[in-house]
Amino acid sequence: MSHASSWCGHESELYELWCACAEAGTRMVDRNGGDIIVVSRGRRNQRAGPDFLDAVLIIDGRLSVGAVEMHRHESDWFIHGHHLDPAYLSVVLHVVGAAGNTPLLQLPTVLAQSIVRDVEHSRCRDSRIEVSRSLLVECAWARFIRRATQIVRDDHSMNSGERIRRAFLRRVFDALGYSANRKPMRDIIDALLASGALDARLSFDEAASLVFGTGGCSHRIVRDLGREFMSDARLDRIVRAMPPPLPGLRWNRNTRPANVPERRLWAGARLIVEVVHGKKIERLFDHIAAGSNWSDLVREVTARFGSKSFIGNSRASEIVMNAALPVALASGIIGGSTRLIHGACRAYRTAPAQQSNSTVRRIEARYLGGRALTAGFWQQGAIELHQRYFTPDRSGLAFIADDGGAMVIRRAYCVS
């Protein structure tokens, strides 16, 4: 029987089908009855070449790593000239809408209709895969090392101290943005760093004017929050000195009152001043290298205004996990400080559980049988697993794309 009429959609719909169905653990059958298990569907290629890159599949019991190409008809492979293009030598799976009875390629080929059928069948059988402890360990370390090596590889035209300060502030503002406002927070700190205004002469009031003005913040909310710890006259000076807003910023204000951008930017202004005055990062690194308690690290990033703080303990803990520790590891690598490297790795491995989020809960529910991850290290592994396996297009990551040398550093300084 011919399969020529089995698919009537466009090729773009095959991309959507693959993204929707090819989750880790999904089983499919190719046109010759061969068994295919998805480890990672890969990431969508936005340039010339195969449609998905860095896919990881188990085909007839053998691990295959490479590209996935899609066509409406099997014969399109030749019509498009892929048989003459070396870029397509990496293809390990061909997904087609329709094919004749006689195979045209010696390449494992899956029909679109069979993907739908096989996925529905496997979901009926509850095809939940088990995520092993060792996989979470590898993902957690890969996440930590990747973040540090991004800093190490950053702009070498500036001195190492400036690179570390910039990396720390960028990661702090990213964490202050939560999931809803990460982009505008990153845009603000990038604009201020590029302006050259953040130097050791900067006062707190000047920093506040810069962040609120650049962020296009509400004068009313800035004043309402500021009255809790400073005079109206001082607030007037801060508001009058606010520069024009950065064009194109879009805030998500559908948040809890405790998470409004102005509240987070008060904290950001305080941390900017403490960093550029040269004290904050040094104290943090001393604590990390000495193996201080987690609470000591959290206390260092809880921006305070007298008895008032605009960062709660849970957010401060996430700043330590996502900003202080990767930056400390990078600084240790750049400066050759084994003590700081060891301290950063030890703190990361022994960190307490952070506030849960939807990604962690999804991994717990679907792949861990509902068991809760009880430490920050395991939660980081779950987040990396989700981004690398399940959402590579959104995250920009892929299962095989990390060349940060995680294993080298882990074996030298850490235990599982």
Describe the secondary structure blueprint for this structure:
Blueprint: H1 11-21, E1 27-29, E2 35-40, E3 43-44, E4 52-59, E5 62-73, H2 76-79, E6 91-98, E7 109-111, H3 112-124, H4 133-152, H5 160-176, H6 182-195, H7 204-214, H8 219-226, H9 232-240, H10 261-276, H11 280-290, H12 294-300, E8 304-305, E9 308-309, H13 313-335, H14 338-349, H15 358-367, H16 376-390, H17 392-395, H18 406-413
Parallel strand pairs: 5-6, 6-7
Antiparallel strand pairs: 1-2, 2-4, 3-4, 4-5, 8-9
Helix pairs in contact: 1-3, 4-13, 4-16, 4-18, 5-6, 5-10, 5-13, 7-9, 7-10, 8-9, 11-14, 12-13, 13-14, 15-16
- Largest beta-sheet details: 7 strands, mixed
Query: What is the number of E strands?
Result: 9
Ranges where pLDDT stays below 50 over 5 or more residues in a row are: 1-5, 124-128, 401-416
How many domains would you count in the coordinates?
2
Quaternary state of the chains: single chain
Which term fits the overall shape? elongated
How many H/I helical runs? Answer: 18
Mean pLDDT: 85
The fraction of residues assigned to DSSP E strands is: 5-15%
